[in-house]
């Protein structure tokens, strides 16, 4: 973990409520896709956790959905402004388990962390399949970006206005060596049930600190108590205990 | 003697800044970020006789200038704290640590304290009779002078180290509870724990926290905490450790003027993991600005 003051390079909308922010700063503490940064915003006591979407040298890309005061403040920030971030938080995905045909499953703003992951897996020579789920055509982002990386991409929308009608679990490929999932909990649960192969799933929790000190985010797993912020956010399929 | 040093119940602290229980774990995460030996000491996570998972999620909610928590005393239990956490702590922290203890019966408090009292690394026992999160106990000990006195007596009977009773602010007469603890033999008082609060989500129309209520802390509570520290310092002769909303060197000085011998810093560590290190670094300049030669001279200066 490292505290870094980033400078905003770009901050543009991708859809009506999802934006992409590109930052410049010291990325040295960020070691794996699936990790997150925790952002300090004016007038808000708790930091806001946002996943690493892409990383190149000192450039860091975040994609966020405006849902409340913190993310609304992010949307209103302009290039040149600075942002205080705790970086390199969380365990991230373990790429060594991917095999040669990994499947990446993203729902809504669960898609961003899969981007850097896809890039790394493709660089290692894997044939990457990406399945993205959104509510409607207007919510879809990064379909082309994933395709440009060389991934095989299919999209489902709940109302059928773009791609297939349905959920990511309705457009699964026949087989995969391992899967990586990120999205809302109902989607993760559906994926857990629908995909027979081993996988890694990324979870969200309300956080106090984001670095393992406050026990604000602990959940029970088959392998013991885990802090989502530090021992997660990525959990291995076999250790998940669903609460209901 | 250094101008920042204070004496807390017979142990010299290099400075009065102490990360508060529950916001610093057992020190490990912070030791990766900076040399935690710069601290006066720290109070480790509230420890109970048996391991506790704590409350269901969500446990954290935001508040204006602060936060609510309903962690529910998650900890590995006193035996694992002694066998695993303390040895690990020894490799990164060479000072006596403050052992924070919670319990659900008088006997449990006494037993947990007795086990920690036997550890060389432990300098003080801080007995939390105030955690507002746990349905089955916590609250009642701290809200009734007679119960607070019973816990104090039971702990004092089985320990040799200084015992600091940590009070709940969720009471009408905090000075009466403090006086009862002093009467029962407490060596010191610390306060405040969190103030009971609530947040409701406008989207779901349900409480944000699974536990419904949670404890408010952070800058929002500072004036309330300061007032209570002042009232308690006036009411008792034993040393008082002040906390609640402290986030700057100025706040530390203000707490000491209200009667605090040392000052704990809680939620600020979560928003800024370097908060305590920065506060300690800022103290000399703030002292210069207000003409303070030695911090120990200003304790209770406003009483
Ligand atoms: C590990 C992790 C990675 C994340 N990555 C992304 C991402 O890449 N893109 C993205 O758009 N969102 C992401 N989120 C969700 C994002 O953190 C929340 O949407 C954001 O904190 C909302 O802040 P707000 O002030 O706008 O909303 P408010 O509702 O006003 O926030 C109030 C409080 O609740 C917390 N909170 C609200 N929603 C969530 C949530 N879903 N998860 C955790 N805390 C929440 C806030 O942090 C804040 O403390 C991630 C969450 C986690 C835990
Ligand atoms: C996440 C969190 C966990 C806490 N856990 C404990 C605990 O285990 N034992 C205890 O005595 N106090 C606990 N507290 C209370 C703090 O030690 C402190 O008394 C309170 O937060 C007020 O200080 P602050 O405003 O600086 O945070 C906790 C506070 C927070 C924010
Ligand atoms: S948010 Fe503090 S331990 Fe995870």
Main beta sheet of chain B: 7 strands, parallel
Number of separate helices of chain A: 4
Instruction: Give me the CATH superfamily of chain B.
Output: Aldolase class I
Report the radius of gyration of chain A as a whole number of Å: 17 Å
Order of helices and strands of chain A: EEEEEEHEEHEHEEEHEEEE
Give the termini separation of chain B.
25 Å
Which geometry of chain B do the CA atoms define? Answer: globular
Mean pLDDT of chain A: 96
Residue-averaged pLDDT of chain B, rounded? 95
CATH topology of the largest domain in chain A: Rossmann fold
Summarize the largest interface: chains and residue counts.
A-B, 26 and 37 residues
| Total number of strands of chain A | 16
Write up this protein.
The complex is a heterodimer of chains A (244) and B (303). Chain A is α/β, with parallel strands linked by helices and 244 residues long. Chain A has helices at residues 69-75, 112-123, 143-148, 185-194; strands at residues 2-13, 18-24, 36-40, 48-51, 54-56, 59-65, 82-89, 102-107, 129-134, 152-157, 164-165, 178-182, 199-202, 218-221, 224-227, 234-236. Chain A folds into 2 domains: 2-89, Elongation Factor Tu (Ef-tu), domain 3, CATH 2.40.30; 95-202, Rossmann fold (3-Layer(aba) Sandwich), CATH 3.40.50. In chain A, helix 2 (112-123) links the parallel strand 8 (102-107) and strand 9. Chain A starts with a strand and ends in an 8-residue tail after the last strand. The mean pLDDT of chain A is 96. With 303 residues, chain B is α/β, with parallel strands linked by helices. Chain B has helices at 28-31, 78-90, 106-117, 138-143, 145-157, 174-183, 222-235, 249-257, 268-271, 275-289, and strands spanning 6-8, 11-13, 17-19, 60-63, 66-69, 97-101, 122-128, 163-166, 188-191, 195-198, 213-217, 240-243, 260-265. In chain B, the strands form 3 sheets. In chain B, strands 3-13-12-9-8-7-6 form a 7-stranded parallel beta sheet, with helices on one face. A 4-stranded antiparallel beta sheet of chain B has the order 4-5-11-10, with no helix packed on it. In chain B, helix 3 (106-117) links the parallel strand 6 and strand 7 (122-128). Chain B is globular, with a radius of gyration of 18 Å. Classes of the chains: A alpha/beta (244), B alpha/beta (303). The interface between A and B is medium-sized, with 26 and 37 residues. Flavin-adenine dinucleotide binds next to strand 4, strand 6 and helix 1 of chain A.
């Amino acid at each position: 973990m490292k505290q870094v003051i980033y400078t905003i390079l770009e901050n543009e909308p991708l859809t009506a409520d999802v934006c992409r922010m590109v930052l410049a700063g010291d990325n040295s503490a960020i070691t794996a896709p699936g990790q997150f940064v925790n952002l300090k915003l004016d007038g808000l006591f708790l930091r806001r956790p946002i996943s690493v979407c892409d990383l190149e040298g000192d450039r860091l890309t975040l994609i966020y959905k405006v849902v409340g005061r913190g993310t609304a403040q992010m949307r209103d920030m302009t290039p040149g402004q600075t942002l205080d971030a705790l970086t390199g938080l969380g365990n991230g995905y373990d790429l060594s388990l991917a095999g040669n045909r990994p499947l990446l499953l993203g729902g809504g703003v669960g898609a961003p962390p899969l981007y850097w992951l896809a890039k790394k897996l493709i660089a290692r020579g894997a044939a990457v399949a990406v399945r993205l789920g959104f509510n409607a055509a207007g919510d879809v982002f990064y379909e082309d970006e994933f395709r440009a990386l060389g991934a095989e991409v299919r999209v489902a929308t709940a109302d059928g206005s773009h791609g297939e009608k349905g959920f990511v679990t309705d457009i699964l490929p026949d087989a995969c060596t391992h899967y990586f999932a990120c999205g809302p909990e109902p989607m993760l649960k559906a994926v857990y049930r629908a995909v027979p192969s081993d996988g890694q799933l990324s979870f969200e929790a309300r956080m106090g600190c984001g670095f393992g000190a406050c026990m604000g985010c602990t959940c029970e797993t088959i392998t013991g108590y885990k802090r989502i912020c530090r021992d997660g956010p990525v959990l291995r399929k076999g250790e998940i205990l669903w609460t209901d | 003697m250094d101008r920042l040093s204070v004496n807390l119940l017979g142990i010299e602290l290099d400075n009065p800044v102490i990360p508060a229980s529950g916001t610093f774990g057992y020190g490990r995460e912070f030791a990766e970020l900076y040399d935690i030996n710069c601290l006066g000491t720290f109070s480790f996570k509230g420890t109970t006789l048996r391991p506790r998972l704590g409350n269901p999620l969500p446990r954290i909610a935001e508040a204006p200038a602060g936060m609510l928590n309903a962690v529910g005393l998650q900890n590995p239990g006193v035996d694992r704290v002694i066998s695993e956490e303390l040895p690990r702590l020894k490799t990164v922290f060479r000072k006596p640590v403050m052992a924070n203890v919670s319990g659900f019966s008088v006997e449990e408090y006494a037993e947990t304290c007795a086990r920690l009292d036997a550890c060389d690394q432990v300098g003080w026992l801080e007995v939390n009779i105030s955690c507002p999160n746990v349905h089955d106990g916590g609250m009642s000990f701290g809200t009734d002078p007679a119960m607070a006195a019973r816990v104090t007596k039971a702990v004092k009977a089985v320990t040799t180290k200084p015992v600091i009773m940590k009070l709940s602010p969720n009471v009408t007469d905090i000075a009466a509870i403090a006086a009862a603890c002093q009467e029962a033999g407490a060596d010191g008082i610390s306060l405040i724990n969190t103030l009971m609060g609530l947040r409701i989500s406008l989207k779901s129309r349900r409480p944000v926290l699974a536990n419904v209520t949670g404890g408010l802390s952070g800058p929002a509570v500072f004036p309330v905490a300061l007032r209570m520290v002042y009232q308690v310092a006036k009411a008792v002769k034993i040393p008082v450790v002040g906390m609640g909303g402290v986030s700057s060197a100025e706040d530390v000085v203000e707490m000491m003027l209200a009667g605090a011998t040392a000052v704990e810093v809680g939620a600020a560590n979560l928003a800024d993991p370097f908060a305590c290190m920065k506060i300690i670094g800022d103290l000399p300049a703030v002292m210069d600005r207000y003409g303070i030669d030695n911090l120990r001279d200003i304790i209770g200066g406003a009483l």
